[in-house]
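Summary for the steering committee. One of the milestones for this cycle was to obtain a three-dimensional model of the protein with shikimate-3-phosphate bound, which we needed before selecting residues for the alanine scan. The sequence and ligand used are listed below.
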Amino acid sequence: MKKLSDKLKTGLHGELSVPGDKSISHRGIMFGAVSEGRTTLHHFLTAEDCLSTLKAFQQLGVPIKRDGETVEIEGVGLHGLKQSGNPLDMGNSGTTTRLIMGLLAGQNFDSTLFGDDSLSKRPMKRVSEPLAEMGADICVTDGHLPARIHGQKLHAIDYQLKVASAQVKSALILAAIQADQPSTLIEKLPTRNHTEKMLNAFGANIQTMADNVTIKVNPQPKLTGIDLTVPGDMSSAAFFLVAATLVPNSKLTLKNVGVNETRTGLLSILKRMGGKVIERHRNDSGEPTADLVVSSAELKPIEIGAEEIPAVIDELPLVALLAAKANGISKITGAGELRVKETDRIAAVVQEFSKLGIAIRELPDGFVIDGAKPWHVEKTKLDSHGDHRIGMTLAIASLLLDEQLQLNGAESVNISYPEFFDDLASVTNIESYS
Ligand code: S3P
């Protein structure tokens, strides 16, 4: 149980470099592993999720050395992975699981995947079913992990995705590059495009059409290792963007944050709500980055629908927090995917925010929040529900309250942001969290 800070009177100040992007760190390991030659990753995210990916590829026979945030991968090529002697532990990581399924489905050996309790409740048929249409032989357990993959030769597919999910899209791309013919994937809505951009940087030929949802994947590319600096994770910067917006008298600079347009939904939403964020030192080579300068602001309520969700999917608990301080009624819909994240994030946000007396109502696919109603703390023991992003959102909420709150399951931050509480202490006047 971690003690959270109570009301911050002096605001958040200074500069912060958040850890490397989780999505890009996972992909850096995976794509480096199946390339020829060495890939070096700088500013790799050394959190539990990405370490699950790193260990899995070591088990698949890829030499990988890590020295702090620098990772060297000696790529074995698209057909050079080796069968693991033991089942592969996916930990808590949905990204590791779904992407690796697409990759291992086309290898010439068998694999078994398992994960922790939370991951073992998350849906896997969304990946195994379309992969089966490509000839994959994957046996999931009632639609969940554990999964057994009997590696096969795969054929091409023309497929319309049933969910707006970058993880599913990426799994299919990783299968499609091993197929016999070009494949076409059509997304429901555009989702994060790191797989397409990064695989092309390694030498693949993946084209996204002008409609932004049709993706053509050419098979059997020659992938060659690269040197890659992972940008700061927008999804980690988001906690500080929201904290500095909501805590009066704040002005904070977040250095070198990834601002790929498929990830910046929070910035657009903040601007519409009246938030103050200025972009500086933008660098558009490869994955774009910028420094973000954020200051406190009074907020207006907002309505958000399905089309906007993929670019802000991981930040929606924070959007709910912004709405809980905006001057009126906000509505977030089309976000049913939140129910199948590390926990049911709709239920978890409603349950925990209600403890703080926030006027929030659960919808099947989102929330309605009346930010004009004052908060009144009803329970001081909060719970992360074992979910990193819920835990960090609650820690930010506590900065706005006079009461001393406690957080059960605070260690869940290790999944994506092990230094979170130290970084929060460094930009506030909090000495340290205990
Ligand atoms: C991710 C995609 C998103 C996101 C997850 C990481 C990725 O999941 O929520 O944290 O790296 O591809 P979905 O694509 O399933 O929505």
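Key point for the committee: The chain has a mean pLDDT of 97.
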